[in-house]
Amino acid sequence: MQHPVPRNRPRTRATALVVCLAAAGAVALSGCGSNTRTVGAAPPPRAKDAFDQRAAQIVRDWPKVAPAPGRQDALLPLAGADHPKSQDVRELTVTVGHSACDAGYGTRVLESKELVVVSGWGRKKNPEGMCTEQLATDKAKVRLDGPLAGRKVVDAATGKQLLKG
Predict the structure, then answer these.
(1) Disulfide engineering: 150 pairs with which of 36, 57, 80, 165, CB 3.0-4.6 Å?
(2) Which of 2-11, 21-30, 118-127 is the most confident on average?
(3) Which helix (H) or strand (E) holds 19?
(4) Which pairs count as long-range contacts for 48-54, CB under 8 Å and 24+ apart, including other chains?
């Protein structure tokens, strides 16, 4: 005994369309090829801040670099750098000029084949409180990925060479 086939064509076409779209979605979600892909645990890329942009500009335009305009918390000028004992050092000592009102300060570095671009940074305390905005200077260590090895050390804020590598 055969069952009668329903004659409801619009529903049949709609069902066929849904099945077709579902199959296409499954193919799209399965990816291309048969290779297995592994997702790493790397953090998402962060937006370039003032230091990243300025350091890249210095590396690109060196030695024709003008000082950065204005004061930015991510680009505090350095008051100097101690001469390293040898070209094999992987750590420099710089003097960071920051505000006495900063809750924290430190250094950032970008290394290239020819340059080591360094900047101080500061983070303000509560902006509601009183502050005299006096300049404070402190020594800070800068760790390098590779030896100094003849590279020039440049202040990101001023664009000036601090050390001849």
Answers:
(1) 165
(2) 118-127
(3) helix 9-30
(4) 49/74, 50/74, 50/75, 51/75, 51/108, 51/110, 51/119, 51/121, 51/156, 52/110, 54/117, 54/119, 54/156, 54/157
Q: How far apart are CA 60 and CA 114, in angstroms?
A: 11
The residue type of 153 is V
Q: Do 106 and 96 contact (CB within 8 A), yes or no? A: yes
Residue 81, C-beta contacts closer than 8 angstroms, at least 6 positions apart? 92, 93, 94, 95, 118, 153, 162, 163
DSSP for residue 3: P
Q: How far apart are CA 106 and CA 100, in angstroms?
A: 13
How large is the average pLDDT for residues 72-79? 85
Average pLDDT of every residue of the chain:
78
